[in-house]
Specification:
The chain is α+β, with helices and mostly antiparallel strands. About 15% of the residues lie in helices and about 45% in strands. It contains one helix and three strands; from the N terminus they run H-E-E-E.
Length: about 90
């Protein structure tokens, strides 16, 4: 990742770390609510990535929403979908 200071490079890396933890069934750190923008009560992370195995390729979309609460944060929504791409000829 390349960009000016303050352009969000660290935010992207942290979001990917959270997605990895969520997809692996790991517990998010207690300070996760600190990553929700100041003045906001919730945030959403949407990622798409490709998974390739031999000749089959799939695109996976994952979305998760976090909301601040008295105990830290709660996950208010998450979804995962896939789209298979059929090999040509």
């Amino acid at each position: 990742l390349y960009g000016q200071n303050g352009s969000g490079k660290t935010s992207v890396v942290e979001a990917l770390r959270f997605v990895k933890m969520l997809l692996s069934g790991e517990e998010l750190p207690a300070d996760t609510k600190e990553y929700i923008a100041q003045g906001e009560e919730e945030c959403e992370i949407d990622v798409s990535f490709s998974v390739a195995e031999e000749v089959q390729k799939e695109t996976v979309n994952y979305s998760v929403a976090l909301k601040k609460d008295a105990d830290g944060f709660v996950i208010t929504h998450d979804s995962c979908s896939e789209k298979r791409e059929h090999p040509c000829c």
